[in-house]
From TrEMBL:
NCBIfam families per the UniProt record, alphabetical: PnpS, sensory_box
Descriptive protein name: histidine kinase
GO BP annotations, alphabetical order: cellular response to phosphate starvation; regulation of DNA-templated transcription
Gene: phoR
Catalytic activity: ATP + protein L-histidine = ADP + protein N-phospho-L-histidine
């Protein structure tokens, strides 16, 4: 923008300089013409006066040479008088020694021939060529008839000096005027171009995207309106960009953090957007999907077929899909929506993937639970009903059969009661607002008091229970009876699924803020794929031994809920044929609820 100011100032100064030069030349010529005209007029009058003086003195034949010499010295001019033929009658002599007499006489003859006899109205003649003389003549009359001529010749030195002075005066005056105009022009151009330059810089910054740029608001009305308008524009753009950024940020946060996978495809089939959930669920790389054709990068043919269907029908589509993701298969509810702009212009397709795998699993668990409960209740009820009918049909008369059937009915009744009690217990634990009776519990003492309860069952299978307590007494915050229930269930399971003559080991490990109780057995073990399901209700690892174990299938579900109620963790390590280890990690100090 400095170039713009320089060009403006240069153009203005050039224009002014040309005007001043033209004005100087015009004034110089006017002054020169006026001065010469005045000078000629004066000398013409002087030549007329001298001619009149000669005429009054008796003409060219009675010249007063002394007076004429005096006039010559006073006027600083050479006075020459000739007759009509050009014969010299009087000559006051050269003004300086540089004038050639022959040249002087030749000039007089030339004037008489061309100017006087030619009746020219011009009564002045300039001789150049290094002489710089001006000749003025006037006819001398006697008795009404011309008898000769008076010539006044003078040097042009005074005219030249005056002319030089005029030019110097003009040059100095115009130079000073030019300097003043330069200073004022620079100030004026800077005054009026500075706001324009500032506004232009701000406009350039706005074009680059810097909407914080502002220009100085000039108080002048014309440039002030420009500056104010630029600033208003900048503020409006900044506000719009900020609002757009906020909106874009909210939209991006919503898209990236929504729980469903999202896929946006443009009208040409290129993928324009995928969110983080889609990337995590389908385990893909963002750069491998963006700006690529969907049928080149999407591995699942069901999804490609759904997209093609939307392209073909331009209708909303909703489908459930069971897709393989890595080593597992997941359920998705997929919504496909065509995106149409104004005037039904086709924009693309939006796909939303809702992962309903957990819902499907819960549905399956519910179905399994209902089926298992029905099966578990049906078995004892069928037994009780069958043996009761047998007794009513006459078997009661047989004392041995009666006693045997009554024992079976009692066992099945006890089993049914245990099952119902476990269901009620599990339901109670799962209810919201379930509270524990927290107090200090000596973990060594708790495990030692629990052993007599499980020893009888262990002795029946010749299983050895080894307790490895800590060397020092450690107390933790917990519900004594619920903790006892946890360990009894786990040790009972270890005994039930251990082979004859096996071993169950109970050990304690102390951490900084926690303790970990491990219960290991040498039983049949659990397959890796079955470990995630062992805490489900009625799930049994060994279906063939489900009845012989004597359990209800709810023990581990109760254990899991009680451990979580204590804010603890339970984990399982197992290998088929090598046994299983349950690890329960509990806090020494019961964690407080966060408000």
């Amino acid at each position: 923008m400095i170039k713009y100011r320089t060009r403006l100032l240069f153009g203005l100064v050039t224009l002014i300089f040309i005007v001043l030069i033209g004005l100087g030349i015009l004034l110089g010529q006017l002054f020169k013409t006026h001065f010469i005209s005045t000078y000629d007029s004066r000398l013409n009058k002087e030549s007329s006066l001298i001619a009149a003086f000669i005429e009054e003195g008796g003409g060219i034949h009675h010249l007063n040479e002394k007076e004429l010499d005096s006039f010559s010295g006073t006027l600083d001019s050479r006075i020459t008088v000739t007759d009509l033929t050009g014969e010299l009658k009087f000559d006051s002599g050269s003004i300086d020694n540089q004038v050639d007499e022959k040249k002087h006489l030749s000039t007089l003859e030339n004037i008489i021939e061309t100017k006087v006899n030619g009746n020219s109205n011009v009564q002045a003649f300039e001789v150049g060529g290094g002489f710089n003389l001006h000749y003025y003549w006037h006819p001398i009359s006697s008795n009404g008839a011309e008898e000769g001529y008076l010539f006044l010749s003078t040097k042009l030195t005074e005219i030249q000096k005056a002319y030089q002075q005029i030019w110097w005066l003009l040059i100095i005056s115009l130079g000073l005027a030019l300097i003043v105009i330069l200073i004022l022009g620079a100030r004026i151009t800077a005054r009026y171009t500075k706001p324009i330059e500032s506004a232009t810089k701000v406009a350039i910054e706005l074009a680059k995207g810097n909407y914080r740029a502002r220009t100085y608001e000039d108080p002048l009305e014309e440039t002030g309106m420009l500056s104010t308008s630029i600033n208003i524009l900048a503020r409006n753009l900044q506000g719009m960009v900020k609002a757009n950024e906020i909106q874009q940020g909210r939209l991006s946060a919503l898209i990236e953090n929504m729980g469903s996978g999202l896929l946006l495809i443009n009208s040409k089939g290129h993928i324009n957007l995928i969110n983080r959930t889609f990337i995590e669920v389908f385990r893909v790389e963002r750069q491998n999907y963006l700006n690529r054709l969907y049928y080149h990068v999407i591995e699942h043919q069901e999804i490609s077929d759904l997209i093609e269907e939307i392209f073909m029908t331009e209708q909303k589509v909703k489908k459930q899909m069971h897709l393989p993701i890595g080593i597992e298969r997941r359920y998705f509810e997929v919504y496909g929506v065509p995106i149409l702009g104004t005037n039904e212009e086709w924009k693309g397709i939006l796909l939303v993937f809702h992962d309903i795998t957990e819902i499907k699993k819960l549905e399956q668990v519910r179905k399994d639970f209902v089926a298992n409960v029905s099966h578990e209740l049906k078995t004892p009820i069928t037994s009780i009903k069958g043996f009761t009918e047998t007794l009513l049909d006459g078997a009661k008369e047989d004392k041995d059969a009666l006693e045997h059937f009554l024992k079976i009915i009692l066992e099945e009744s006890d089993r049914l009661q245990s099952l119902i009690l476990d269901l009620l217990e599990l339901s109670k634990i799962e209810q919201q607002g379930y509270t524990l009776s927290i107090r200090e519990v000596n973990i060594n003492q708790l495990l030692e008091e629990m052993l007599p309860i499980v020893n009888q069952k262990a002795e029946e299978k010749e299983i050895k229970i080894i307790l490895q307590p800590l060397q020092k007494n450690i107390t933790i915050d917990g519900d004594y009876y619920r903790l006892k229930q946890i360990f009894i269930n786990l040790i009972s399971n270890a005994i039930a699924y251990s082979l004859q003559g096996g071993q169950v080991t109970v050990s304690i490990k102390e951490g900084k803020n926690t303790i970990a109780v491990s219960i290991s057995d040498t039983g049949i073990g659990i397959a890796k794929e079955e470990i995630p399901r062992i805490f489900e209700r009625f799930y049994r690892v060994d279906k063939a031994r489900s009845r012989n174990s004597g359990g209800t299938g709810l023990g581990l579900a109760i254990v899991k809920h009680l451990v979580e109620a204590h804010k603890g963790k339970i984990s399982v390590e197992s290998a088929l044929g090598k046994g299983t280890t349950f690890i329960i990690e509990l806090h020494k100090t019961f964690p407080k609820e966060r408000k």
